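Incident log, structure service

09:12 report received: a user says their structure output differs between two submissions of the same chain.
09:20 pulled the input from the user's history:
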Amino acid sequence: MASVLVAVKMPKWGLSMEEGKIVQWCKSEGEQVQEGEDLVDIETTKITNTAEAPATGILRRVLSAPDDTMRVGALLGVIAEAATPDEEIERFIEEFSSHFATEALSAVEEESLILRNVETSRGRIQLGMTSVEPAPETVVLIHGFSSDLNNWLFNIDALKAVARVVAVDLPGHGGSTKEPGDSSLEALAQATMEAIAQVGVERAHFVGHSLGAAVAVQAALEAPSSVQSLTLIAPPGILGGKISRAFLDGIVEAQRSRDLRSPLEMLVDDPTLISKAMMEDVMKAKRLDGAEDWLRALSDRMVYSAELNDLRARLSEIPRALVIASRNDQVVGQIDEAALPKTWRLEWIAQAGHMPHLEKSSDVNRLLLAEINNN
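09:34 re-ran on a clean worker, output below:
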C-alpha cells in the first residue's frame, strides 16, 4: 500500500498575493499534527495569518525557515506517516520541485477571484466571484468602511469549499463607482442586491463586516426572502457600542500613508500586524477620484445619521442572525448582549480587534461554515 504524503504549500490569500514570508512554525519537524491545527504563521503584504495543517500525520520535513520568502504554491513542508521511509519523502520533494512552476501557476489561476463589473441604478459595482455559474449555495460578502473585497482574503478559500462566493465592492470603494451618489444604507443595500442579481444570485448567505454588516441588515429587512442566513461581524452601532470618530476622521483626513498608521492600528488587537504595504494600499485607494468624498459622506452618516437607530429598532423583524464580535474592538466598541434579539446568537472572538475575520480567520471560518451548514 502506497504511503500518503501531503504537501504543505504557501497559500494564496487574496488577488494580489504572489509570495509570503515565514514568521514562525507552530510545530517542529517530527511532531504530530492534526488536520486544521495551526501550523505556520505567514506574513503577507496585507496582514499576518496562520496556515493550518492540511492533513493529520507527522510533520516529517520543514523546508522553510523564519524570514524565508516563498512564492505562492511553494513547498513549505511535508506531512506523512511515521512509517513512511525517508527515501520516499525525498523523492516526493524532488518531484514536487521539478513540477513546481506549473503547479504554482495552476494554483494561482484556480484560487483567483473572477472580477466582473455590473451596472446598477446606483452606478457601477465590482464583484469578485469564485464561479460565474449559479450554485445551490451562495455566500455574499460585504466589506466595511474604507475597505474592499480583498477584506475577505483569509475567508474565501474556506467558504468556497461549500458554496459559491460573491464578494461585493460597495459604491465608493474598490473597483466600484466613485461618482457622486447616495451614501445611505438603503442605497448601498439596493446597489448590492441589484449587482448580485445580475450574476444569478436569488438567495444567499449574507456576511457583512462593520459598515457591510449594517448594509446586510438593511438588505435582510428589505428583501427577507433573498437572505438565507445573516452573519454580522463587528456591526456598527446597531447592538450598542459607540463608533470611534477618531478612527473615521483618521482615515478620511490622512494625506500621507504614514498618517494612516494610528487609525489602522485601531482595527486590530496586535498593532504590529499593520504593515507599510497595507497603509500604502489604503492611501492609494483614497487618492482615486471621488473616493475621499464617499468616505467623508459615509463617515458622517455612521456617526450622525438616524439610520443606525432605525435599524436597531427593527432588528426583531429578522428571525435569526449570528453576530461575531471582539471585546477589544476599538472602532465600534463592545456589543451589548442585552440588545440582541432573543433568537440571535453572539460569538466572542478572543485576541482580536475590529477585524476578527482577518486576525482569527480560522475561528471565524469555522463559525461561518457552521452557520451555512445549519441553514
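09:41 both user submissions now match this output. Likely a transient worker issue. Closing.
09:42 reviewer note: The chain has twelve helices and 16 strands. The chain has two domains: 5-81, 114-373.
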